[in-house]
Amino acid sequence: MEEWRGAAGVCINEKSELLMVLQGAPDERRTWSVPSGGKELNETFEDCCMREIEEETGYKTEIIKKMKVKKRKYEEYNISAEVHYFLVKIIGGTRSIQDPDQLIHGIAWKNVQEIKELELSFPEDREFLIECIMK
């Protein structure tokens, strides 16, 4: 089983909306996720989180705190994943897609009601993301 390790950023604005990206490969259905991606060699999970957010949204961020680590096996893809989630705040940049993988198709702030109804890339994150906003 292939191992994948990465990080995800949870960014909530003053309107209690979550920063999300619409993603998908050309042959895939497009779904919503918080900005996230794979850790590069010699990169910390924190650095990975901030780099992925900037690539996918154009925003520069700083880490506020580590929130959780999700470990999951995706048997259908023969992948074991470990994702480190961080609460972040925007400190600069402008909204723009700069994704080198060309998998990001949109950037939006989503409220709790929208998150309840969106087609998520990782549906298992729905309750966690709603809880983050409700705190």
UniProtKB/TrEMBL annotation:
Entries under Gene3D superfamilies matching the protein: Nucleoside Triphosphate Pyrophosphohydrolase
Family from the record: Belongs to the Nudix hydrolase family.
Cofactor(s) required for function per UniProt: Mg(2+)
Name assigned to this protein: DNA mismatch repair protein MutT
Pfam families: NUDIX (PF00293)
Residue ranges occupied by any Nudix hydrolase domain in the UniProt entry: 3-134
Swiss-Prot/TrEMBL keywords: Hydrolase
Hydrolase among keywords: yes
MF-aspect GO terms: hydrolase activity
Alphabetical list of InterPro entries matching this protein: Nudix_hydrolase, NUDIX_hydrolase-like_dom_sf, NUDIX_hydrolase_CS, NUDIX_hydrolase_dom
Keyword Nucleus tagged: no
